[in-house]
From TrEMBL:
Role this protein plays: Required for the formation of a threonylcarbamoyl group on adenosine at position 37 (t(6)A37) in tRNAs that read codons beginning with adenine.
Keyword Nucleotide-binding among record annotations: yes
Organism of this sequence: Hydrogenispora ethanolica
Sites where the protein binds ATP: R30, N34, T89, S115, S123, R166, Y204
Name assigned to this protein: Threonylcarbamoyl-AMP synthase
Gene Ontology molecular functions: ATP binding; double-stranded RNA binding; L-threonylcarbamoyladenylate synthase; tRNA binding
Subcellular location, principal: cytoplasm
Enzyme Commission code(s) on record: 2.7.7.87
Annotated signal peptide: none
Pfam families (alphabetical): Sua5_C (PF03481), Sua5_yciO_yrdC (PF01300)
Sequence positions that bind L-threonine: T7, H39, R93, A113, S153
Keyword field: ATP-binding, Cytoplasm, Nucleotide-binding, Nucleotidyltransferase, Transferase, tRNA processing
Subcellular location: Cytoplasm
Gene Ontology cellular component list: cytoplasm
Length: 315
């Protein structure tokens, strides 16, 4: 069953039903070495999943649950290796979306749920995205409109030291303030030893090749215009731009990622825009980078993934 959360839509199965879990992997085309996040509605459910809740973990659950933060815990042996992809840890989060909360409360059993997209496609932030990817392949889809945050939860591991494995709407700054210590961010480009197994796959990707331009905003505008001038008229190039620069591009298709100083807006629009590029049958997507601060760090991370590492640094 597909349900909305405050981050993206999830495809859920009861955490200890191995047949249903295997179906999730099959329906998404997801590699079996990529573990799932388990969703709960009440902290009392933690004891059925994890062998220990450290004081740091408790501090974070108090500060950020319910909300878009996933915490890695040592798992109890009864948690299936299908959920954890054979790891001895389990990822748990408590969503704040009222529909997700109601569903989890009614089920009253933890629910494992990856994002409800086909593997490799941008995560679904609207019911229509889920229909595009999974219609006819799942029993139920609950459509509750757009997901407010629009990017997947922050994933943090705490042992031996706090490291953000996947940046999200709960920012490094917020986590450092709650924990009272420095929090590192795993290098997403480390393909050899990815921290969250899911981060090694080319994720969040539109069909057309995307090129990401990072650096001084004025120079980025100039460089993108330079590329547009070189492009052939038969190509359908789509620019993803900040609101401020929308009118600066010499191009037919310019999509609005939101104001430069509002990465939250960019987060909420990003996946919808990438899917729209596919509908336009874009031949190439040129994307303005965002400042990697606050939620901007998470947006920058997803943009890099969408570009599959094709990044132009202008300075
Ligand atoms: O916002 C979200 O987290 C959404 C909604 C539906 O809750 N879910 C989601 O799930 O994004 P998924 O499966 O698309 O991404 C789960 C991420 C993957 O990068 C996976 O590798 C990582 O969490 N993960 C899961 N269990 C882990 C573990 N034990 N250790 C390290 N990383 C883990
Ligand atoms: Mg996913």
């Amino acid at each position: 069953m597909v349900f909305p959360t405050e981050t993206v839509y999830g495809l859920g199965a009861v955490f200890n039903d191995e047949n249903a879990l295997l179906k999730i992997f099959a329906v998404k085309g997801r590699p079996s070495d990529n573990p799932l996040i388990v969703h709960i509605w009440d902290v009392k459910q933690l004891s059925s999943l994890v062998s220990q809740v450290s004081s740091k973990a408790e501090c974070l659950t108090k500060a950020f649950w319910p909300g878009p933060l996933t915490i890695i815990f040592p798992k109890r042996s009864l948690v299936s290796g299908v959920v954890t992809a054979g790891l001895d840890t389990v990822a748990v989060r408590m969503p704040s979306h009222p529909v997700a909360q109601a569903l989890l409360r009614l089920t009253d059993v933890p629910v494992a749920a990856p994002s409800a997209n086909l593997s490799g496609r941008p995560s679904p932030t609207k019911g229509s995205h889920v229909v595009e990817d999974l219609f006819g392949k799942v029993e139920y889809i609950i459509d509750a409109g757009p997901c407010p945050a629009g990017i997947e939860s922050t994933v943090i591991k705490l042992e031996p030291d706090p490291v953000i494995l996947r940046p999200g709407s709960v920012t490094k700054e917020m986590l450092e303030q709650a924990l009272g210590e420095r929090v590192a961010v795993a290098n997403p480009d480390n393909q050899e030893h990815p921290q969250a197994p899911g981060m090694k796959y080319r994720h969040y990707a539109p069909q057309a090749p995307a090129l990401l331009f990072e650096g001084d905003p004025e120079k980025v505008v100039a460089e993108i215009n330079h590329r547009l001038d070189q492009g052939k008229s038969s190509e359908r190039i789509v620019v993803i731009s900040s609101s401020e620069h929308l009118t600066r591009y010499r191009n037919e298709w310019v999509l609005d990622l939101g104001p430069l100083e509002s990465p939250e807006v960019a987060a909420s629009r990003l996946y919808d825009l990438l899917r729209f590029c596919d509908q336009l049958a874009a031949s190439q997507i040129l994307i303005e980078g965002v400042k990697p601060q606050g939620v901007g760090l998470a947006v920058a991370n997803r943009l890099r993934k969408a570009a599959g590492g094709c990044i132009v640094r202008v300075s």
